[in-house]
Amino acid sequence: MQKVLMICTGNICRSPTADGVLRHKVLAQHLAGQIEVDSAGTQSYHVGEAPDRRAQKHALRRGYDLSALRARQVNAMDFAEYDLILAMDKSHLAYLKQHCPVNHQHKLRLFMTFATQSSEREVPDPYYGGDAGFELVLDLIEDACDGILQSLR
User: Fold this and answer.
1) Is 61 a catalytic residue?
2) Residue 153 — very low, low, confident or very high, per pLDDT cuts 50/70/90?
3) What are 93-120's pLDDT values in tens digits?
4) What is the pLDDT of residues 111-150, one digit of tens each?
5) pLDDT band at 64, cuts 50/70/90?
6) How far, in Å, CA of 29 to CA of 8, rounded?
7) Which family does it belong to (predicted)?
8) In 3D, which of 39, 2, 43 has the Cα closest to residue 20?
9) Among this protein's residues, is 146 annotated catalytic?
10) In principle, which of 5, 6, 56, 144 could form an S-S bond with 15, CB 3.0–4.6 Å?
């Protein structure tokens, strides 16, 4: 069983979208017993909340249901529990490196390093923007999730 954890700031836009997309792809490819997915935030602003309504709306248009997900903050146990901990941007990666024990640092990566179509290295935060930002985030996440699945096989 490979365990993948997606990380963004508040765990209400980017990381739950990546969580939902990868979960969907895992199920579609009959890999549910092989890959487990979760998400968390570096901050506790939204703990217990559902993903941003705009993130949910745009994801649902593409067939990804994020409604059951709830925000949580990354914790010390996550570093030991997960095999791959993926940061949405460089600030999240820096936070993770600062808090992660040395023996688990090898698990930390930028999410977009798995992208196969895009040269972007970070997933931009759509929170303060409009619809186009949420669509771009989905485009980037779908690309990187395909790469993650290729890598884990």
Assistant:
1) no
2) confident
3) 999 999 999 999 999 999 999 999 999 9
4) 999 999 999 999 999 999 999 999 999 999 999 999 999 9
5) very high
6) 26
7) Belongs to the low molecular weight phosphotyrosine protein phosphatase family.
8) 39
9) no
10) 6
Q: What is the total residue count of the chain?
A: 153
Give catalytic status of residue 53 as yes or no: no
**Nearest residue to 8 via CA among 85, 67, 62, 68:** 85
Where do the domains of the chain lie? 2-152
Q: Of 14, 78, 89, 145, which is the active-site residue? A: 14
H-assigned helices in 3-130:
14-28, 53-61, 76-81, 90-99
Q: Which of 84, 91, 90 is nearest to 107 (CA)?
A: 84
Architecture of domain 2-152: 3-Layer(aba) Sandwich (3.40)
